[in-house]
């Protein structure tokens, strides 16, 4: 072994002796008393990469009421939202309002072009009616057919 990797051990965590490569995003700080919400993630250029058109992004209510929060649509997603956060079809509007208010404040990860438009992933801290907070992964498309940024999927992460 000409160049063995060196590791530092502290309690149960192993850290490489040399710094890891710079990640796509660096954490600037936390909000809400340090509950893990990201205030800003910046790329090496210094600007936070947020969802394009976040201010006008569309969230089809049916995506939640007929699918993600509806046990008849996707029982696993519906169960996860109900048990983790307390969301169901009766309070879908509360989830929609929170996503709209927060989507432009979290980093957006480009996922590539799917044949219909550019797609993105945004993981958002959502607080449910039960008072619990969890990370919710949201998937978006910048639809080439109409120029609209639209929610296409979501689930408790």
Task: Report on this structure.
It is built from three helices and ten strands; from the N terminus they run E-E-E-E-E-E-H-H-H-E-E-E-E. It has 157 residues and is of the alpha+beta class. The chain has a domain at 50-156: YaeB-like fold (2-Layer Sandwich), CATH 3.30.2310. The strands form four sheets. The chain has a four-stranded antiparallel sheet with strand order 7-8-9-10. A two-stranded antiparallel ribbon has the order 1-2. The longest helix has 11 residues, at 75-85. The model is unreliable at 1-44 (pLDDT under 50).
Write the layout of secondary structure elements.
Elements: E1 7-10, E2 13-16, E3 26-27, E4 30-31, E5 37-38, E6 41-42, H1 61-68, H2 75-85, H3 92-102, E7 108-113, E8 117-127, E9 133-143, E10 149-156
Antiparallel strand pairs: 1-2, 3-6, 4-5, 7-8, 8-9, 9-10
Provide key terms for this protein:
alpha+beta, 157 residues, 3 helices, 33% strand, YaeB-like fold
Task: Give a brief outline of the structure.
The protein has helices at 61-68, 75-85, 92-102; strands at 7-10, 13-16, 26-27, 30-31, 37-38, 41-42, 108-113, 117-127, 133-143, 149-156.
Distance between the termini: 40 Å
Shape: globular
CATH topology of the domain at 50-156: YaeB-like fold
Decide which structural class fits the backbone. alpha+beta
């Amino acid at each position: 072994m000409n160049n063995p990797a060196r590791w530092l051990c502290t309690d149960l965590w192993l850290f490489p002796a040399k710094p890891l490569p710079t990640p796509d995003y660096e954490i600037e700080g936390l909000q809400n008393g340090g509950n893990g919400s990201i205030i800003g993630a910046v790329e090496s250029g210094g600007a936070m990469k947020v969802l394009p058109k976040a201010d006008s992004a569309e969230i089809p209510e049916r995506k939640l009421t007929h699918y993600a929060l509806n046990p008849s649509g996707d029982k696993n997603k519906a169960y996860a939202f109900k048990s983790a956060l307390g969301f169901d079809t009766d309070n879908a509007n509360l989830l929609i309002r929170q996503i709209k208010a927060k989507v432009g404040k979290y980093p957006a990860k480009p996922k590539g072009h799917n044949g219909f438009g550019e797609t993105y992933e945004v993981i958002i801290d959502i607080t449910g009616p039960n008072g619990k907070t969890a990370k919710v992964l949201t998937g978006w498309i910048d639809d080439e057919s109409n120029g609209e940024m639209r929610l296409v999927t979501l689930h408790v992460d």
